[in-house]
UniProtKB/TrEMBL annotation:
Source organism of the structure: Algibacter luteus
NCBIfam families: gnd, PRK09287.1, therm_gnt_kin
Pfam families in UniProt: 6PGD (PF00393), NAD_binding_2 (PF03446), SKI (PF01202)
Protein name (Swiss-Prot/TrEMBL): 6-phosphogluconate dehydrogenase, decarboxylating
GO biological process: D-gluconate metabolic process; pentose-phosphate shunt
């Protein structure tokens, strides 16, 4: 990426000398800001009068134009005193991501002496005091002391520029560790940070760096200020910490050391509503905030996750090279990372990804129940699922096969795992979002509540004694179970994608559903052959149940799920998602449903009115029942 290096400092600090030498060293063009002053400014300074902000305005804009034009071709060095932050704002206008600041520092006496030794310069030493008075030293600049020899100053600048990392990773837990290794493997110079808890967790970052060859050029920190200062500006810092209060705490810990224009990327599973709040809050401080969904777990984060970034579109280019480089690749070798939309959209899409994930997991659990009740042991069930791969391949199917085959001291490990399924919130939020946006997300709600029910372990044991649920062997053909599973997966994807689509409309996010399906074809937990099939389908309509290919599949599979659900009910098997899938379609594909009864009841007790089938105008009626 081309950059403009602004060399700043008071008059007499040696900016022109250093700027020229630096440009020669870096083999990039040099521009002396003084050459762009209008004659009126030069005359004013020659007459011993300091320039005011109005005098400087046009000149700074001119330099900004010079920088912009040069950036189209190459990097460059521009020398300009830029004493106040307001001046630097003008200099970096529209190019903030390309700007690097070098500030030359020195004591008044040394610089005063140098100015008095100068010949043929229109700046008198008398003006120096006013320059020192005006100076607001930049916080985010490479600082170099001008008492050094010019060659040493240039060497120092180059070293500092080379030393600074281009990307920071905050939080070396499961995901942060994998992502930082992934970034380093792609050749990025990174800084990594993990907190220290005295006596409990010490030297986490440095120990982790020392353990992995690819991190030899990374800088490891346990001090936030040093971590932030180790980064090139504008800084790009990815947070991989727990969602919720910890994310807020970490943002507050970082804020004192950040500068306007820096970018914070929250890669955790944060609630999209909180992301919107954080986006607005940080915007007010000049910090760009990205809520980025990351999926793939520990292995995906290392080898290539699916990444869902949401935030300011103009700033996306700044983080795009990093996110797209570390992302998984699809079949066409395109990154499974795409700009999703504004503010909380990235986290919303990740949340729905997890909602779909909950259902896919629950369906496999229900399939396991059915196949077990049909008399199969875990190895046999794994073999059956293996045989489904040509028709139903997915990451979750594959890992379930591995799980079922895993032994612990000659016994199946799965039999030793307590039947209580935890959650960290995304399924809960997806269910809330379906209700808030009026989308019938019945499967996600069922999958979530199945997990909640699992947590009532003691009550379940009691209830099993009271109600004597039999779970009788169920007589089904394997092909019907596969078809039922595939049917329910289509309904799951319909509901999840529909939720994303409705959110896009409600929040005015310009979402590209086909592109979202594309980035879910690799790297993430819900990657599957079905997802790949949906890419062209979603190019035509956000309602996959309107597409002829899907309609044909659903019609073909429906008799099987009818049979599976009916027989499971008679055998008293718990299959909440399979049964909801078939119930949903029976309700959805019903042109005359029983909702007229509900509406009549509402009108009876609450005068809520109703529309009539024999009045096409849509007029509302009330009956005195
Ligand atoms: N695990 C997964 O499969 C996935 C997780 N995610 C999301 O990514 C985020 C990170 O997950 P994961 O890596 O699994 O979580 P971990 O619990 O493994 O790591 C959490 C990190 O946050 C740090 N941390 C916690 N509290 C503080 C604090 N007060 N100040 C500074 N740092 C703190 C921890 O430091 P310390 O080690 O010192 O406690 C640790 O580095 C979460 O939001 C999660 O939901 C997203 C996709 C997949
Ligand atoms: O985001 C993920 C996978 O995509 C995380 O693993 C997440 O923790 C899964 O959700 P839950 O913990 O609620 O099962």
């Amino acid at each position: 990426m081309n950059s403009v290096i602004y060399i700043t400092g008071v008059s007499g600090s040696g900016k022109s000398t250093i700027g020229k030498l630096l440009s020669e060293n870096l083999k990039i063009p040099f521009f002396d800001g003084d050459d762009f002053h209008p004659q009126s400014n030069i005359d004013k300074m020659k007459s011993g009068l300091p320039l005011n902000d109005k005098d400087r305005q046009g000149w700074l804009l001119k330099l900004n134009d010079v920088a912009k034009a040069q950036l189209q071709k190459s990097s460059c060095v521009i020398v300009c005193s830029a004493l106040k932050q307001a001046y630097r704002e003008i200099l970096k206008k529209d190019i903030e991501y390309h700007v690097k600041w070098v500030h030359l520092t020195g004591g008044f006496n040394l610089i005063f002496k140098r100015l008095n030794e100068r010949e043929h310069h229109f700046m008198s030493s008398d003006l120096l005091q006013s320059q020192f008075d005006t100076l607001e030293p930049p916080k985010d600049a490479i600082q170099v002391d001008v008492s050094l020899k010019p060659s040493e100053i240039v060497k120092n600048i180059v070293e500092q520029m080379e030393e600074k990392s281009e990307f920071g990773l905050f939080g070396l837990g499961v995901m942060g560790k994998s992502l930082s290794r992934n970034l380093a493997q792609k050749g990025f110079r990174i800084s990594i940070f993990n907190r220290e808890v005295k006596g409990k967790e010490e030297h986490v970052a440095i120990d982790f760096k020392n353990k992995h060859k690819e991190l030899e050029n990374a800088h490891a920190f346990s001090n936030i200020e040093k971590f932030v200062n180790s980064l090139q500006t504008p800084r790009k810092i990815m947070l991989m910490v727990n969602a919720g209060k910890i994310t807020d705490m970490v943002i507050e810990d970082l804020l004192p050391y950040l500068s306007a224009g820096d970018v914070l990327i929250d890669g955790g599973n944060s609630n999209y509503i909180k992301t919107k709040e954080r986006y607005d809050y940080l915007k007010s401080k000049g910090i760009h905030f990205f809520g980025v969904g990351v999926s793939g777990g520990e292995e995906g984060a290392l080898k290539g996750p699916s990444i869902m970034p949401g935030g300011d579109k103009n700033t996306y280019n700044l983080v795009k090279p990093y996110l797209e480089s570390i992302a998984a690749k699809d079949v066409n070798n395109l990154p499974c990372c795409t700009y999703i939309g504004e503010e909380g959209s990235g986290h919303f899409v990740k949340m729905v990804h997890n909602g779909i994930e909950y259902v896919e997991m629950q369906l496999l659990a229900e399939v396991f129940t059915i196949l077990k009740t049909m008399g199969n042991n875990p190895d046999e069930i794994a073999d059956i699922l293996e045989s489904w791969k040509p028709k139903a391949q997915s990451y979750l199917l594959s890992i379930t096969i591995d799980i079922l085959r895993k032994k612990d001291r000659n016994e199946w490990l799965i039999h030793k795992i307590v039947d209580k399924a935890g959650n960290k919130g995304t399924g809960n939020w997806t269910t809330i979002a379906t209700a808030q946006l009026g989308v019938p997300g019945t499967l996600i709600a069922s999958a979530l509540f199945a997990r909640y029910t699992s947590f009532y372990k003691d009550e379940r044991i009691q209830a099993s004694k009271h109600f004597e649920i039999t779970s009788l062997p169920v007589n089904l053909e394997i092909k019907d179970v596969l078809n039922a599973y595939q049917f329910a997966r289509i309904i799951n994807h319909f509901q999840g994608i529909r939720l994303v689509s409705e959110a896009g409309k409600a929040y005015n996010w310009q979402l590209n559903l086909s592109e979202i399906a594309r980035i879910w074809t690799n790297g993430c937990i819900i990657k599957s052959d079905l997802m790949a099939e949906l890419i062209p389908v979603l190019k035509e309509d956000d309602n996959i149940l309107k597409h002829q290919v899907i309609i044909n599949q659903v019609k073909l599979l429906k008799p099987s799920i009818n049979k599976v659900v009916a027989k499971c009910m008679l055998s008293e098997l718990a299959i909440p998602c399979l049964s909801d899938a078939v119930n949903f379609l029976n309700n959805y594909a019903n042109s005359r449903s029983s909702a007229n009864i509900i509406q009549a009841q509402r009108d009876y007790f609450g005068a809520h009115t109703y529309q009539r089938t024999d009045d096409a105008t849509g007029k509302f009626y009330h009956t005195n029942w």
